[in-house]
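Protocol step 4 of 6: structure prediction from sequence.
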Amino acid sequence: MINRSDYNSLPAKARYSMIIGNLLSLAIALAILISVWKILHIFPIPKPVFFWYKCIGGLVIAYIILLLVLEPSLGYKRHQYRINDESIDIIKGIFFIEHTVIPIRRMQQVDISMGPINKFFKLANISITTGGGVASIDFIPLDQAEMLVDNLKNKINERVV
């Protein structure tokens, strides 16, 4: 069992970013589904196509609404990270818990990114590139993210020199 007392949790404003992001996803999905629905009514389409369209569209909307409810509560609580001298641990997930451990010596590149919603809340995502792939720590306060990235880049440079 993992002792999570030394892990960092997300700031409270990360919940708002999650909610707004999921609301935008829901609005975009609804706009696409309504547009396709209007187009399907223009042409003579068999009834089974409408049935499957309704089923698939309903599942997409239900999934986004489920994320809208679960991500700001359960996903927020489970999303934690820890950075020490040896490794970076990231725990996140809603339905499936993902625990990623990245050894400091394997890191090759560290980047900061912000979308428009995170930029509004002054949150950033840290991307950590290794030889095996990319991991990210999401919804970190911008000032803290910049400090973490500088420290991690210094560790990468120390290893190279």
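Step 5 (inspection) to follow. The two ends are 37 Å apart (CA to CA).
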